[in-house]
Amino acid sequence: MQPLNVPERLSNRAMAFVLAGGRGSRLKELTDNRAKPAVYFGGKTRIIDFALSNALNSGIRKMAIATQYKAHSLIRHCQRGWSFFRAERNEYLDILPASQRVSETQWYLGTADAVTQNIDIVDSYDVDYVVVLAGDHIYKMDYEIMLRQHVDTGADVTVGCLTVPKAEATAFGVMGIDKSRRITSFLEKPADPPTIPGDPDNALASMGIYVFNWAFLRDLLLKDAQDANSSHDFGADLIPEIVKNGKAMAHFFDDSCVTTGLETQPYWRDVGTVDAFWAANIDLTEFTPALDIYDKSWPIWTYSESVPPAKFVHDQEDRRGLAISSLISGGCIVSGSEVRNSLLFTGVKAHSYSSLSKVVALPYSQFGRNARLSNCVVDRGVLIPEGLVVGEDPQADSEWFRVTDTGVTLITQSMLDKRAAALT
């Protein structure tokens, strides 16, 4: 029984369906062996942890994760870090790989089809609302607020929207809305984006977050499945259909973003390129970063390895283990090395006389003596050889490594192996 004058939390009657099957090809070699949602972020977490943590912190205790592309590391991470749900408490987290459940030749054809193929599983949850989430963005958001708006407005779908400058909106799916926030149009990467009523400088971009009544979505999915001309995608097919023939409402991210007082602006990042991934991680080393990962009231849950504390050794004039304006994770050893404005994930080792500046080093990578790297992303388990210099001559670096237009260098072990073979 609910206390008097306290509305029931709608999250108790909702489930989160997380779409985590995409490769994220713009991350290049970082997704050669893992899906984009499984890519590391922030020193300890994976990208998918943000969507899952938002759901958990919002009060949602029923979740499903649809996987497809190279899902092993993602599935293993979720099994290790998210296995605390208990069915006897009416809590569930199901991992739903594309498993040819409706046809021996059919994988997930699109984002909507990923839900369609699992209708029976969603039915078994006995929920009233489904929150469809992209599993590949960095943000903190209270979905309960979005659920409440959805119910209060009687919408068929409520779409999470970012406020972005009109000039930047050409890279997004953009919502045209009226003064009541009802969506009147949905345009994919328009040359001339519609702006927010009363705000001619800004537009509304889709976040890939949707709230539906399950009964309504179920019928819509079954209808879409019979349409041979459909690509079976939420953004391309279902949302435009509802905009045209139903009631689609926009939810402003500003209304439900979670801030701590240190965060001065709503924070949302698509870390879908090497540049964006590097920048978002390096931004965490700022004195007051735009994203507060230390907020205990809205923690980002993850699988945390049992490792010893970080260690710094040697204290000679030219051989001192130190880190300045950097995040150093457990299990790291900074041995007579200088680390500045960098982020080292679990188990990284930097050997004597090496120096790292604005380096994002994924777990268990190692830096040999006298190595000097700047503006780099180093993949998991990479062994940087002694004396390697990267980040000072982009043209020379591009012969062996991937260098972006802004000068960020991505280094993988296969790149180093090719370099070593060519130089011997």
Domains (count): 2
- The CATH topology of the largest domain corresponds to Spore Coat Polysaccharide Biosynthesis Protein SpsA, Chain A
Query: Mind describing the biggest β-sheet?
Result: 9 strands, mixed
How many helices in DSSP terms? Answer: 10
* CATH class value of the largest domain: Alpha Beta
Q: Categorize the overall geometry.
A: globular
Mean pLDDT: 94
> How many β-strands, per DSSP?
29
* Proportion in β-strands: 25-35%
From the coordinates shown, what is the CATH architecture of the largest domain? Answer: Alpha-Beta Complex
Write the CATH homologous superfamily of the largest domain: Spore Coat Polysaccharide Biosynthesis Protein SpsA, Chain A
Low-pLDDT runs of 5+ residues are: none
Derived structural class: alpha/beta
Portion of residues within helices: 10-25%
Rg value: 23 Å
Distance between the termini: 74 Å
Describe this structure in words.
The chain is built from 10 helices and 29 strands. It has helices at 48-58, 72-81, 111-116, 119-125, 143-153, 214-225, 234-245, 274-283, 394-397, 413-423, and strands spanning 14-19, 40-41, 45-46, 62-67, 92-97, 129-134, 138-139, 157-165, 173-177, 183-188, 202-213, 248-252, 268-269, 311-313, 315-316, 319-320, 322-324, 327-328, 333-335, 338-340, 343-344, 349-350, 355-361, 366-367, 372-378, 383-384, 389-390, 402-403, 409-411. The protein has 2 domains: 10-285, Spore Coat Polysaccharide Biosynthesis Protein SpsA, Chain A; 311-423, Hexapeptide repeat proteins (UDP N-Acetylglucosamine Acyltransferase, domain 1, 3 Solenoid), CATH 2.160.10. The radius of gyration is 23 Å and the shape is globular. With 424 residues, the protein is α/β, with parallel strands linked by helices. 22% of the residues lie in helices and 27% in strands. The strands form 6 sheets. Strands 1, 4, 5, 6, 8, 9, 10, 11 and 12 form a 9-stranded mixed sheet that branches. Strands 17, 18, 20, 21, 23, 25, 27, 28 and 29 form a 9-stranded mixed sheet that branches.
